[in-house]
Each structure stands twice: as structure tokens, then as C-alpha cells.
Amino acid sequence: MNTRNGELSFSINDRVDNFEVGVSHVPLGMLGTFQKDVSEFLRGSAREVEPNDLIVSIVDGSVRLNVAAGLLVATTLFADIDRLQTDGNLNFIDPKRATVIERWQTAAKQNAHRKYRVFGTATNSSITVDSNSDYRRIETTWIPIEKYLSGKVLDLGGKTKANIHIELSGGTSVTVAAPQELLEREEKNRLYKNAVLYVSADQNIDTGELKNYKLLSFSDVSPVFDQGEFDTMVEKGVKAWSDVPNATEWLENLRGGNA
Question: Is residue 251 classed exposed, middle or buried when 0-12, 13-18 and 19+ CB atoms within 10 A define those classes?
């Protein structure tokens, strides 16, 4: 979606008293609610946009608000619109914006004439919420994993909820919950030093996102991939199977696949 010009348009279509809703015919309550929804959608949870600072134009035909300036820094706003255009899963966008979409969809399901649109004014890309749309929160699955984290310890400890703040090699900081008794037993001073943490976490099987880090132990050996050791293992394996003409066929026979 080409939104580099930072322009967006929000519109609401409906019929009231057998007339199409427009600038000259719109219930005051509908106009006020729509304005609040647009403001909430623009602001999001991060408040990267301040609606009070924006200049809008109201376009006839439907009730349409054109936001033509002040959105260039709103990167997550445009990213969320892109996600909504390709995926109806509301879990993947800002929660405030997801709530607005849910509210619009509920209203549209109750009124077949109601339709909302959000689109880039200089592009053909858009999202539409009406009685046929199906934006929803899809249940995500989180699985427990264990892994190593390598980085610099920036903070360690805590009076009630002990944790470790570690900056990973890519610059991302992660907070890891740490049992106080484990920190008490640690003899090395880990603060402001590079360390390897063996942790448990929950991983989203769809996105790979990790959360709920918990320290299991410190490790003094970094788990790195050794290409030389791997090549040696491959060489040993090749030699061990050298007298087998067809390894796949041999394995199938062993399993009884050709019986």
C-alpha cells in the first residue's frame, strides 16, 4: 500500500429515513461517534498521532473525512491498515484499532446499509467494514520452549519481582523473570557484562513471537554452530553408510515398507 504521502480518508455510508447519509443529512449522534472512532483509530495505543493537531476536510457523497497532513510519522498506523487488507485477524494490529474495527463491524451487522471505509487518498488500497466483512480475533496458540539468550546484562535484581534486562546482539532489550534464589546463588558479577542465559518462554506458533521469559540458569558456554564439527560428523556418516547402495531403500526395508 503506497501511503508515503501520509494521506488517509475515512468514510461512513448509511441510510436514515430513506435518505443516503451525507454532509447535508446525517444524525448528530452518528457524526459524533464516527469522529471519535476515527480519532481513536488514528491515535492507537502508542499515540503516535494526535488527532487534535490534524486538519481534515469533510467530503460530500457520504460522510467522509480526509486527513491530508500530519500522518507521515505514523508508521504503525499504515502497517496496521496493510495487515487488515491482507489478513482479517485483529490480533495482529494495534488493540485500540482492533476495538474500533470490532465496533464498526457490530454496527454493520445490525444494519445492512452501514459501511465504513479507510483508504489512502492517492491509492486504490482500502479496507471495508460492512455486513459481509469478517474481521475477527483468531485464537493464537502459544507453546513452551527453551532457548539461549546471549547479550549484555543491563539490569539485574529487584525487591519483589526479580528480573534481568538483557540487550541482545541486534539491539533489542528483553526482560527475563528470574527467581531470587537463583540470583542469590550466582557467584559471578553479571551486571554490565556479556552473558548467556538459558531461559524458558512461550512462542506464538504463527508469528514466532516470544513472551514470558524466565531464567532457568546462566551458561558460560555460548551455544554456537561449529561448521567444522558439523562437516566432521557428516564425513563420518558418509563413511558409515558407504557400503549401502541405496540408503533410502535400505531404511524402507528395515521398517518393513516393502514387505
Answer: exposed
Contact 175, 165 (CB under 8 A): yes
Delimit the domains of the chain by residue range.
8-129, 142-219
Helices (H), the chain: 28-43, 75-86, 95-110, 180-185, 227-240, 247-255
Residues 247, 258: Cα–Cα separation, whole Å: 14
The answer to whether residues 155 and 164 touch, using CB atoms and an 8 Å cutoff, is yes
**C-alpha cell recorded at residue 73:** 510519522
The CA-CA-CA angle for residues 250, 255, 257, to 5°, reads 85
pLDDT in tens, 140-162: 788 999 999 999 999 988 878 89
pTM here?
0.55
Cβ neighbors of 54 (< 8 A, separation 6 or more) are 42, 67, 69, 70, 71
Strands 173-177 and 163-168: antiparallel
- Encode pLDDT of 104-138 as tens digits: 999 999 998 999 999 886 556 689 999 999 998 87
Amino acid at 256: G
Question: Which amino acid type is present at position 95?
Answer: P
Q: Does domain 142-219 have CATH number 3.40.50.720?
A: no
Distance of CA 151 to the CA centre of its chain: 24
All cell numbers assigned to 185 = 546463588
In the chain, the amino acid numbered 222 is: S
Retrieve residue 28's grid coordinates: 448528530
